[in-house]
Amino acid sequence: MNIDNTLDLRQRHSAAIRIWHWSFFIVLTASLVTVGLASTLFRTRNTIALVQTQLKAKGVLVDGNQARAVAHEFSDKLWELHTWLGYILCFFVVARIVIEMVQPSDERLSRRLGAALAFRPSSLQERGEQQHYLLVKRSYLVFYAAIAIMALTGLVLAFENIVLFKQWRAPVKQLHGFVQYVVYGYVLLHLAGVIRADLSQFPGIVSSMINGRKSSRP
Questions:
Q1: Which helix (H) or strand (E) holds 112?
Q2: Residue 41 resides in a domain
Q3: Most buried pick, 15, 92, 128, 193, via CB within 10 A?
Q4: pLDDT by 10s per residue, the chain, length 218
Q5: Is residue 86 domain-shared with residue 114, that is, in the same domain?
């Protein structure tokens, strides 16, 4: 099958994209972990009893309201860390846009999408590969849009004391919470898809995102 000149299914990734990808993955994972911990183990109402038990063991008796004030600090610290990680994610959103604009044209996502749309398959196999390729690349766009929305809504929540933002807090918080599940779903599907591809049709796809070489075909 000769599609290398038009639709390269084993494309290289620039150093800028690879650095962005892994740095973004680390920060995004840390951000999601803080949400998980703050919403479960360190949720205020879940740690009140723990605070009371630990203080009682030290000979200090406190009521529920006093214990809540202490327990609240646990989740506050995690949400504060989540906010700072959110600022970093905002930087990554801007950085990804800049990378798309300055890297060589043949490595831009927009150019690769255009080439895939212009490709005319000559067999059912090529047609299937083209559709899969387009699905993957379009899913990137959905993910980037979700991250951008999450970053923007996060900024509104972080600066909710601004008068203009106060009236938006409730709907923005709902949108922010909804989009996070879109991100969770994408990350899980992406990981599953990459592992499946690496073990079947495109061995070396994971290492190619590290060393920049093309993945091989079986």
A1: helix 109-118
A2: yes
A3: 92
A4: 334 445 666 667 788 888 999 999 999 999 999 998 988 888 888 888 888 888 888 888 888 888 888 888 888 899 999 999 999 999 999 999 999 999 888 788 888 888 888 888 888 887 887 888 888 889 999 999 999 999 999 999 999 888 778 888 889 999 999 998 899 899 999 888 888 877 877 777 777 777 666 655 54
A5: no
